[in-house]
Amino acid sequence: MHVRARAIAFGGLAVALSIVFMILGSVIESNTLFLLAAASYFVGIVIREFGLKIGAAFYAANVILGLLIAPNKFYVISYAAMGLYIFLVEAAWQVMARGPRSAQRKSFFWVVKYLIFNAMFLPGLFFFQDFFFSGNLSLGILTGVAIGGQLGLWIYDQAYEYVQRHLWNKYRGRLLR
């Protein structure tokens, strides 16, 4: 199969699965975050397999199609934030890979990840409280939520790395022949 055709075929299947996960997140309320995270992991898979340009097109197609099809638009916005985080982290990794090798690269990459996450999370938390919560929260509760968000990022990122290293590497040979 031609390389472009393979990318388009795999991208189409991954878009379909991502949309199904977004819709299932609306139906199965107890697993919403898990399903949205699973949908967003496809952004990283497509980027690692086919590059940033195809990954950006894949991400945009998912967000647009999700807004058109998914019943709960808030979940599509949540997916968009998760997918954007993965897109920016993968782009940062590709930029760092071109630079000189350093023993501190892994710790620097974690700093970059937290900067990307906090640039997205903290403004939303502090300036759009009414969007996420039923009323204004005290500074202490907002601080607790901000700290909880850092822990949530660590869990999300560890799960993403597990999916990329173990699950995707196990199945990619079977799916991308």
Automatic annotation (TrEMBL):
Keywords: Membrane, Transmembrane, Transmembrane helix. The chain crosses the membrane at residues 7-24, 30-47, 54-70, 76-96, 108-128, 134-156. This is Uncharacterized protein.
